[in-house]
Design brief:
single chain, elongated, 4 strands, 2 helices
Amino acid sequence: MILGAPAAVSRHARDAVVEALGPDRCRVVTGSWSWAGLVGTPGRFDAGIEVVGPSEPGDAFARLTLRCARAATGAPAASPAHR
């Protein structure tokens, strides 16, 4: 994925590989045990996110967005089966 952040985020990227794409953009390559785990990672950088690659991360971002929107309204947590 591509972040709207400088490559200096690499010091916080744990086991990810970070490649500078300019002064305020970088590519982050990382892995995870699940798509949900993968898309939860870039949120900690507080930067814009661009998905590069297969469609599964985009789908996982959409599901995470819905869960975050419910949390913002104070709605009760739903199980993964009730996404």
